[in-house]
Amino acid sequence: PSLGDFDIDEVESRHIRAFVIELRTKELRENEKLAPRTVRNIYGLLVTMFHDAVADGLIGTTPCTLRRGVLPKKADKDPAWRAGAIYTRAEVEMLISDRRVPEDRRVFYAIKGLAGLRHGEAASLRWRQYDRTLEPLGGLSLEQTKTGVPRRVPVHPTLARVLAEWKLAGWERMFGRPPTDDDLVVPTRNVTERSRQEAPKALCLDLEVLKLRDRRGHDL
Question: pTM, whole model, 2 decimals?
Answer without folding.
Answer: 0.71
